[in-house]
Predict the 3D structure of the following.
Amino acid sequence: MNTPDIPVLPIGSHVSMSGKEMMLGSVKEALSYGANTFMLYTGAPQNTRRRALSELHIEEAQALMKARGMQPFVVHAPYIINLANTVNQETYRLAVEFLTQELIRTKGMGSQVLILHPGAHVGAGMKAGIDSIAKGLNEVLAASPDVLIALETMSGKGSEIGSRFEELAAIYDRVQKPERLRVCFDTCHVHDAGYDIVHDPEAVLERFHRLIGREQIAVFHINDSKNEKGAAKDRHADIGEGRIGFETLYHFVHHPDFPGIPRILETPWYPDPENPGRMLPPYKEEIQWLLTASRPKTFPHA
């Protein structure tokens, strides 16, 4: 049974995993925001250094989650994984081998979803990149436990793959085990890629459904954007302070077609008004606003 202070809607944020408590600390951080789910990295997203599962306090973390009625959490793969790279085979091999290990870690920590940036073709062209992603995924999925890989929608900066729904669909078409794939729908990225989620979010979702299927969305990243639609820049803004706006993000959070899908905030931290050298997380306030539609007219960190 859920405790009274835990919302029914699966909503949370990115949380850290560090220090002595590791995953247990992650759960405590999520609870401090009033969240009932969360997203974490198994280590720093910019490198391959990882601690053994036995050092992560997984059992204590899972016990606390159970006691507080928390929903399943999700894991994000590090940015260094680039299955689309056909230019540097060392980078590609690292991606395959490390992604396989990340799936094993994700399973060991108790999650069933690993979010993955599809990759960047680094000048080789979209087709070469997509073919390489599918090739890598086929190898990884054949050698890993039954964890889902959620391909993240991207903003389209540089040579990123995944800013168009057609690109994600093409990856699905080339993968031998498409049942192991899902999508992480990032509101900032989709907006920055040029989709009009502000004025017609249902048309965007319908286009996604025709190409991939709504049931394939396993996670929402709920982020506002500092950019105009189609800017292809990927600069997150705090909830209601960007070009997407509170109303659109509230619409996605409460969309009836996705009742059990985690909504994860990745919004920027802000300077403490009393100590500008200290950064504070916005998640507790933003989760409350998104649950209750009680957004203040003047944001405390605006």
Q: What stands out?
A: Confidence is low (pLDDT under 50) at residues 1-7. The CA atoms of residues 22 and 130 lie 35 Å apart. The first strand starts at residue 11 and ends at 14.
